[in-house]
Structures are given as C-alpha cells and as structure tokens.
Predict the 3D structure of the following.
Amino acid sequence: MHSWNLYDLYNQLLKQNFELDLQRQMYYQPVRLSVAAAIASERPGVLACLSDDVYNEGMDVLQGEIEEKGGDYVLGSKFNIVEAWAQKPIEEKH
C-alpha cells in the first residue's frame, strides 16, 4: 500500500516552484461490523495487496470485534478525497 502525506506532498511541490491548488473533503460513512467483514472477506482493493499473514491477522481482529460487540455494531468510517492541481509557471523568454 502506498499513500502520500498531503502536507509532505504540498511542501515538496512548493519546493519545486509549482503553483498549487489542493482541496480536501472528509466524509463519514458508518458501517456495521458484519458488513465490513463481508466486504473484507472478498479482499478488494488494497486488501488484495496485503500478505496473507497480515490480512488474516486483521480478519481475526475483525471477527473478535464481531464476537464482542455483535455484527450490528456500527463502526465509524472516515475517508478523505483529495484533489490536487499543480503546474509549473511558464517562464517568459525576453
């Protein structure tokens, strides 16, 4: 899995003299533990990139949460969408 730290990305682009426009929106989508387990069991997206050991360890933790709290327990789920625009200014030749 690879993700950028938005602060680091912004500063690296500034150092390279890019003009920037970054916008970040945060969303909240609650999900029941049983639904999270059903989605995770199909191993979509980033989960497919995990080693079997790491994936199985996470699934065991999720199953433990279901046993402790019940499948209808609502888990908070926050995610961000970041839109970044960067362009180097055109240098005019005299």
User: Anything to note?
Assistant: The mean pLDDT is 89. The first helix runs from residue 6 to 15.
